[in-house]
């Protein structure tokens, strides 16, 4: 749901039922949830809850107005088809993690593949998306979707260039590394049996995952593509 549509819903709820509006504001993935479109507007749930709370209060006082939602143009629909198809593809790369899984804080069942065949598919995908975006006449997009198009296209260009220059052959730097996300970052990742099962499943993939990453790093080293030595000093003792 687009942000303006979301706010329209919230304002409506605030006027008809303050309690219902307050409940919406508490939802981590409510009507404006972050799981709508990959790479598009992606507000953190905590910030969104605060924003919805403020809108609720203002709406109840009659001090907020939401502009009518603009009707999608034919070009908007074409653009939407592109980024929604991309979202489906991205989810498939992380074990077909669904929006429902995200709401339940269930991580993917498997670690990503980083072998040459997978990297080739990644490269082909981003090039394909760029080609599709190149066929979109931005002048035919609505105001909101034109902004989304500009942001989204810039993100895809970055992803395509990362593949073109084989950034994946350097998966370690001074502040992040490919193994850093394997375990949940806090206790929220271990609150139910499903989360534990997903974690154990990912652990089974660790040997293969590390082997593939090491192969990629060795390829990077062979062409002199590594992080600067100074940025990794002390990493072996961390």
Principal-axes geometry comes out as globular
H/E topology pattern = HHHHHHHH
Distance between the termini: 43 Å
Q: Count helical runs.
A: 8
Q: Helix coverage percent of residues?
A: 55-70%
Low-confidence stretches: 33-45
What's the total number of strands? 0
Q: How many strands, which pairing sense, and closed or not: the largest β-sheet?
A: none
Q: Mean pLDDT, rounded to whole units?
A: 79
Radius of gyration: 21 Å
State the secondary-structure class.
mainly alpha
How would you describe what is shown here?
It is a single chain. The protein is mostly helical. It is 57% helix and 0% strand. It is built from 8 helices and no strands. The protein has helices spanning 3-16, 18-26, 45-60, 74-93, 99-103, 116-134, 143-164, 193-222. The longest helix has 30 residues, at 193-222. The chain is globular, with a radius of gyration of 21 Å.
Question: Gist?
Answer:
The protein has 8 helices and no strands. With 238 residues, the protein is an all-alpha fold.
From the structure above, extract its key features:
globular, 57% helix, 8 helices, 238 residues, mainly alpha
Describe the secondary-structure layout.
Layout lengths: L2 H14 L1 H9 L18 H16 L13 H20 L5 H5 L12 H19 L8 H22 L28 H30 L16
Helix pairs in contact: 1-2, 1-3, 2-3, 6-7
């Amino acid at each position: 749901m687009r942000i303006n549509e979301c706010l329209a819903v919230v304002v409506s709820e605030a006027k008809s039922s303050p309690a219902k509006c307050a409940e919406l504001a508490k939802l981590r993935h409510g009507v404006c949830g972050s799981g709508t479109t990959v790479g598009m507007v992606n507000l953190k749930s905590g910030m969104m809850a605060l924003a919805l709370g403020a809108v609720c209060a203002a709406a109840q006082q009659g001090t907020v107005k939401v502009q009518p939602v603009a009707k999608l143009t034919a070009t908007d629909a074409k653009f939407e088809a592109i980024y929604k198809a991309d979202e489906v593809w991205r989810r498939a790369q992380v074990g077909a993690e669904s929006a429902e899984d995200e709401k339940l804080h269930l991580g993917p069942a498997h670690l990503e593949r980083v072998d040459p065949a997978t990297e080739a598919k990644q490269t082909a995908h981003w090039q394909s998306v760029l080609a599709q975006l190149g066929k979109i006449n931005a002048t035919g997009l609505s105001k909101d979707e034109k902004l989304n198009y500009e942001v989204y296209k810039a993100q895809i260009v970055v992803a395509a260039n990362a593949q073109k220059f084989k950034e994946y052959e350097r998966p370690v730097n001074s502040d992040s590394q490919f193994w850093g996300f394997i375990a949940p970052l806090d206790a929220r990742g271990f609150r139910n049996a499903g989360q534990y099962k997903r974690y154990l499943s990912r652990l089974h993939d660790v040997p293969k995952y590390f082997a593939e990453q090491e192969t990629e790093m060795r390829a990077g080293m062979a062409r002199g593509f590594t992080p600067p030595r100074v940025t990794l000093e002390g990493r072996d003792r961390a």
